[in-house]
Structure prediction request, 505 residues.
Amino acid sequence: MDGRPGRWARAVLALAAGVAAACGGSPQTPLSVTLDRVPSTLDPHHHNEIVGWSLLCNFYDALVRFSPEMRIEPALAASWSVLDGNRVRFVLRRDVRFADGTPFTSADVVASFERALRDPESKIKHQLVGIRRVVADGDGAVVFETAAPAPTLVNRLAFLFVVPHAEVARPEITRPVGTGPYRFVERRSDGRVVAEGWAGWHGMPDVRKVVFSFVENEEERGSQFLAGGVDVSARVVDDVLGDIHRRQGLRVEPQPSLVVQLLVVAPRAGRGVTGRALADPRVRRAMLLAIDRAGLVGRVFRGNGAVASQYVHPVVFGYDPDVSALPYDLPWARRLLAEAGFANGFSVDLAHGSIPPAYVAELVDDLGRLGIRVQPTQYSLSELLRRARAGELPLLTYGRACTTGDASEFLDSSVHTRDVERGLGIENFSGVSDPETDALLEVADRELDPARRLALLQQAQRRVLDALPILPLTVRSEFVGVSARVDVPVRYDGWLWVAGFRWRR
Prediction:
C-alpha cells in the first residue's frame, strides 16, 4: 500500500489542473475554510480530534512539529539533544512572542506540560506517559526527564501545544493565545472562527485572514463547495468528485490518510462454534484471503486507495517494505476453513461505526461466499468503543492511524497484552496475548538506536501478521476541495495549516 490517489482520482486532478485559474487573493482577501466537524473545544489540551488539531495548529505551536511528509522538525525548540538515557534538553527559539505580545520562555513550556498532565479535562495525557517532570534550564531551555529511555518522546511532544503560563489556571481556554501564525479574532454566534495573520516568528503568512466554518453534513458541505462559496473544504466525499472536475475554478487535492481500516477478531466474544472458529489462526487467515480487498478499493473507494499489507501506513516508522499483502484467493480460503474443521462455516456478528455502507456490504458478501454468515450492526463511536473494551464484539471493523508517525502507537495499544497500569494494550480489542511480541515491543520502547528499533518493530509486526488477531484491510486517500484562488500543500496528518497555503497570482 502506498496511499497514492488511484487512476480515477489522478484523472480528476489532471482535468482540474487544466482549468484556467481565477484571480488569486490579495492580502486583504478573507480565505474561507470549511471543516467536517464542529470542534468540541478551543482549548488545546482538552481535545484529541482531527478537527481540533486542524483548527488550533493555526494558533499554537509545540516544541516540534511534523512536516507534511510526517518528518519531525523544530518549532518552538530550535534544537534538542539527548543528555543521557532519561533526559532530553530542548534549546528554545529566541525572540518569540505570543500573539498578545507576551515573551515566550521556558516557564510557558513547564506550565503547559503541568496543565496537560494534571488537568482532569486533559485529553492528551497519553502523549505524556513516562515523563517524570519538565524543568526549566534558564529562560532559554527545558529538560524533559523520563522514567526510562523514551524513543518516541520527541514525536509525542508535537501534540503538546504551548500556552502562556498566565493561562494555565483557566478551567477552559475559549480564546486561543499562542505563538502560531494566526491570532484568534472571534468565534461568531453561528460557530465560525475568525483568525488573522500576524508577523510573529513564522513571519507574516501569505493568507492574512481566515474564516473557519464547520459543516458535518457531507451533502451540505459538498453543495456549499460546488456553489463556489468556499475556498478550502475538508474531506470531500467521493460522490462529488465528478461534479468538481466539471466546475471551472474548482479542483481537489489528494490528502493521503494515515488511517488503515482493520478487522478485529475477538474469539472470546463469540459463543460456541463461533468462538472456537475465530480462535483458530487458519480461520482468520481464510477470512483475509476471502476478502477481495482490491475490489473494495476499486468499487467503494473508486480506486482512491490501496490494499493494506500491514497495520501502518508506509510513511510511519516501523512500516516493513518486505511484507506483501496476502492475495484474494477464495479456493485457498475454503481449503483452510475445511482444514480447521469449519467447512460449513459459522455465524458471527460484525460491529462497525460510521463507514460507507457499501464497504460493510462488501465485507458481508465476501465472507458469505466463504460460508461465514455475517450480521452487521452499526454503533455510535462511543458505544462501539465501550462494547469493544468490554469484549462484546466478535468482529469489529474500524480505522486506526499512527498520528505520532511511529508504529508503536498502534502496536503498544492494540496488540500488547493489556496492562492498564503501564498504559499498554488499552485498545487490545482482540484479546491477543503473546509474550514474545510483548517482549519485542517493550525492548523497542526503550531502544534509542533507530536501526535496531526499526528491526524490533518490524519483527513484532510480522509475528502479529502471522497470527492475524487483526486483519489489515485497506488504506485510502482523502481529498480536500480547493478553489482556483489558492494552493494547498498535501499533508499526511490531515491538518489544515493555513500558513502553508498560498494565493495564486
